[in-house]
């Protein structure tokens, strides 16, 4: 046909050469009754939050652009952490925070480092911005190998070095000594992704100051029960936040989300209670794991990485799915042969999971 002939050569414009090999982010959303695969909170935010949010939404001036600087939200986050609002950058999920960071400081001709296995999106977003990614290996027990860190920092002129604490998918917290050691040798910026920090007993926030090239990223998706809102932020030196503000799109943070985030911070105690419950459930599941034919990594997050020892990981994943329980299949990921990752759910969901896993492994 005419149009087809005419546009044949350009109807499917090839993507950038450097993006051809990119695979994208895969996390199947299957419809099951027990969904323990994406590290969300198993429970919604408090009813009082929902009421307050609905009340403010009803007064919203939808014909106006939102506050471009998200001042009220930034101030509330800054108060939570005892820092200045100029040290807070906010975006649509911490993934967008990371993307803005990399659009600003990575990109073509620049190099970033990750230590694998770790959160796949660090390397993925860096590659999308055109940066080169150097992947260092962790030790066999998934702790950071400081010799590898030192070698990579000496060999590559890095602009960003990524840490993730607690690390996804291993659940291991990065001890303060390691973060300090990385800061000592990393030539550029050190980013600590703390999406799960409230589940751990240490945060790198204590190491931040205006003279240190360190930033911390956080999200409302996990601890704050607000994955649906897409809200994340960064805490760092104010000069760096000012640079990010130049790169991000105007009005990137919609008015409803600014309200949602600001109101969430009024319910810190509810959030902490939810976190405590999840931590106690995590400990219960780990105790139950000790009785099963599997290896697991002691977690400081709201998920646990484990490796069945009597059956292939993929087989166990499918057998759980057959019992209406969805966990994350990491068995095909580099260095994670046969590994699965389970998100801590409600007490009832965890019971169903443990029951199903016991049946499968026995
Ligand atoms: C879930 C997760 C994020 C989250 O992202 P949002 O975009 O805020 O939902 C960031 N980092 C890590 C390590 C995660 O596991």
Keywords:
single chain, five-stranded mixed beta sheet, 2 domains, Aspartate Aminotransferase, domain 2, alpha/beta, 362 residues, binds pyridoxal-5'-phosphate, Aspartate Aminotransferase, domain 1, seven-stranded mixed beta sheet, 38% helix
Indicate the topology.
Blueprint: H1 2-7, E1 34-36, H2 47-58, H3 71-81, E2 88-91, H4 94-105, E3 111-116, H5 120-128, E4 132-137, H6 146-155, E5 158-164, H7 176-185, E6 189-193, E7 214-219, E8 232-235, H8 238-247, H9 255-264, H10 268-289, E9 294-296, E10 303-308, H11 313-322, E11 325-329, E12 340-343, H12 347-361
Parallel strand pairs: 1-11, 3-4, 3-5, 5-6, 6-7
Antiparallel strand pairs: 2-8, 7-8, 9-10, 10-12, 11-12
Bound molecules: pyridoxal-5'-phosphate.
Pyridoxal-5'-phosphate is lined by residues 39, 93-95, 119, 164, 168, 193, 195, 219, 221-222, 227, 232.
Written overview of the protein:
With 362 residues, the protein is an alpha/beta fold. The chain has two domains: 112 residues, Alpha-Beta Complex (Aspartate Aminotransferase, domain 1), CATH 3.90.1150; 220 residues, 3-Layer(aba) Sandwich (Aspartate Aminotransferase, domain 2). The chain contains twelve helices and twelve strands. The protein has a seven-stranded mixed β-sheet, sandwiched between helices. The chain has a five-stranded mixed β-sheet with strand order 1-11-12-10-9. Strand 3, helix 5 and strand 4 form a beta-alpha-beta unit. The longest helix has 22 residues. It is globular. The termini are far apart. It binds pyridoxal-5'-phosphate. The site of pyridoxal-5'-phosphate (PLP) has 14 residues, from helix 4.
């Amino acid at each position: 046909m005419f149009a087809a002939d005419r546009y044949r050569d350009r109807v499917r414009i090839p993507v950038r050469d450097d993006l051809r090999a990119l695979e994208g982010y895969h996390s199947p959303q299957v419809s099951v009754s027990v969904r323990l695969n994406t590290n969300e909170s198993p429970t919604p935010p408090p009813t009082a939050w929902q009421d307050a949010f609905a009340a403010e939404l009803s007064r919203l001036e939808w014909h106006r652009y939102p506050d471009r600087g998200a001042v009220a939200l930034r101030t509330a986050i800054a108060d939570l952490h005892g820092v200045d609002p100029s040290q807070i950058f906010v975006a649509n999920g911490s993934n967008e925070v990371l993307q803005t960071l990399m659009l600003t400081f990575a990109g073509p001709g620049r190099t970033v480092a990750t230590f694998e296995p770790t959160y796949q999106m660090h390397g993925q977003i860096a590659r999308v911005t055109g940066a080169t990614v150097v992947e260092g290996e962790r030790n066999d027990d998934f702790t950071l190998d400081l010799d590898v860190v030192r070698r990579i920092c000496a060999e590559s002129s890095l602009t960003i070095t990524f840490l993730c604490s607690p690390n996804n998918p291993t659940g291991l917290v990065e001890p303060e000594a390691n973060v300090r050691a990385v800061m000592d040798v990393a030539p550029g910026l050190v980013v600590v992704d703390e999406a799960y920090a409230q589940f751990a007993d240490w945060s790198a926030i204590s190491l931040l100051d205006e003279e240190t090239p360190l930033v911390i990223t956080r999200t409302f998706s996990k601890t704050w029960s607000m994955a649906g809102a897409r809200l994340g932020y960064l805490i760092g030196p104010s000069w760096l936040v000012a640079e990010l503000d130049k790169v991000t799109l105007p009005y990137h943070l919609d008015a409803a989300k600014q309200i949602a985030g600001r109101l969430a911070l009024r319910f810190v105690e509810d959030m902490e209670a939810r976190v405590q419950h999840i931590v106690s459930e995590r400990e219960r599941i780990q105790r139950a794991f000790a009785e099963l034919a599997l290896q697991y990594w002691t977690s400081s997050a709201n998920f646990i990485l484990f490796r069945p020892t009597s059956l292939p990981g993929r087989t166990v994943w499918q057998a759980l799915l057959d019992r209406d329980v969805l966990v994350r299949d990491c068995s095909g990921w580099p260095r994670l042969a046969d590994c699965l990752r389970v998100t801590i759910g409600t007490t009832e969901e965890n019971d169903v999971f443990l029951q199903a896993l016991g049946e499968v492994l026995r």
